[in-house]
Write a structure and sequence with these properties.
alpha/beta; Beta-Lactamase; Rossmann fold; 7-stranded mixed β-sheet; 6-stranded antiparallel β-sheet; 14 helices; 13 strands; 35% helix; globular
Length: 360
């Protein structure tokens, strides 16, 4: 057993999502969204380095020493998997570990709207799950892929950096590929995937023009593609994809994206106030003909009004989802206000509305 495993066990017992080990500081845990110190001595640089190197593959240690950054996956059988990031900083080495539960929760267990698991049955197209770091994108995607794995008879390829949730093949064949270990880049893996007879492709992160372009191409050629972006709303997601391309290609990509896109889920995670745990508020855009026309014509600013009137398709605005959680008594008015897009809707719920200088 590695020395560091004791911290992972503590992390699991405390229900923490992240573990921070940084030279010159005590260990820290993120519990229900808040950083809390562990009652332990301050970590010395050399001691921490040897602790970290004990669990890192040799090739990852080499990359870290050459570049000062590295990502990889680590697993404790019977406990959980961890997404690890090592980095250099002013006081020496540092690392952050995100716990990936070994059990994949269903959409129903996560409390996701009924339309979300239905996305697993789409024959083709592009589905994007977006939100800030730590908003539960991977958990939502895992629930959708799990649904597909149980209900379809297809080939699923996941491309991640590093591999997070591990799906055992059920009705589907599932192949996991890790960037840096099994393939050079997301783009290389995507290009290869198109020759590997896939039905469903999961792209862990759509970071650059080449990856985004290949994902849209795969969705347009008969594959069902799931991907993630760090955007905060459905409209911003569509705009971000188009803006990645050079100006002279944007008209063409609007048309291709309009044909290929099927849904956008933008989510935010909240700390529950009624009990321990967290819950997600989701904005859901389903690409019906009206939405596709707006994307094609460059009128994405009109999409929120389509979402508002598209409840029968399962669509919902983020602020409406947040309001629903607030009315249920699951989240605080302060956090609802802080994370809402239209803050004016939530000001009446605050005992002391803040003077937000950004809205002056």
């Amino acid at each position: 057993m590695a020395k560091i495993d004791a911290f992972f066990k503590l992390m699991h017992e405390e229900g923490a999502s992240d573990l921070h080990l940084v030279a010159g500081s005590q260990p820290l845990l993120r519990i229900r969204g808040d950083i809390e110190r562990v009652k332990y001595k301050v970590l010395e640089n050399d001691e921490l380095r040897s602790m970290l190197y004990e669990i890192a593959p040799e090739d990852k240690v080499k990359v870290f020493e050459e570049t000062g950054d590295v990502d990889f996956g680590y697993e404790i059988p019977g406990l959980a998997r961890y997404r690890a990031n090592f980095f250099m900083h002013r006081n020496g080495v540092g690392a952050v570990f995100r716990e990936i539960p070994s059990k994949i929760l269903t959409a129903e267990q996560l409390g996701l709207p009924p339309v979300v698991p239905k996305l697993a049955s789409l024959p083709r197209g592009l589905v994007l799950v977006t939100g800030p770091t730590g908003s539960g994108k991977s958990t939502t995607l895992a629930a959708i892929i799990n649904e597909a794995n149980k209900t379809r008879k297809d080939h699923i390829i996941t491309i991640e950096d590093p591999i997070e949730f591990v799906h055992q093949s059920q009705n589907c064949i599932v192949n996991h590929r890790e960037v840096g270990t099994h393939t050079r880049s997301f783009a290389t893996a995507l290009r290869g995937a198109l020759r590997e007879d896939p039905d469903i492709i999961l792209v862990g992160e759509m970071r650059d023009l080449e990856t985004i372009s290949l994902a849209i191409e795969a969705a347009s050629t008969g594959h069902l593609v799931f991907g993630t972006l760090h955007t905060t709303s459905a409209v911003k997601t569509v705009d971000r994809i188009i803006e990645v391309f050079p100006a002279d290609e944007q008209a063409q990509i609007r048309s291709t994206l309009a044909d290929g896109i099927r849904a956008v889920i933008a989510q935010v995670l909240f700390k529950r106030v009624d009990k321990k745990g967290r819950c997600a508020a989701l904005e859901i855009l389903i690409a019906n003909p009206a939405v596709r026309n707006l994307i094609r014509e460059g009128k994405t600013f009109q999409i929120p009004s389509i979402i508002q009137t598209g409840k029968k398709y399962g669509m919902q605005l983020l602020d409406d989802a947040i309001m629903d959680l607030l009315n249920k008594g699951w989240i605080s008015a302060e956090e609802a206000y802080a994370k809402a897009n239209d803050k004016s809707k939530f000001r009446p719920f605050l005992k002391k509305p803040p003077a937000d200088f950004t809205e002056v």
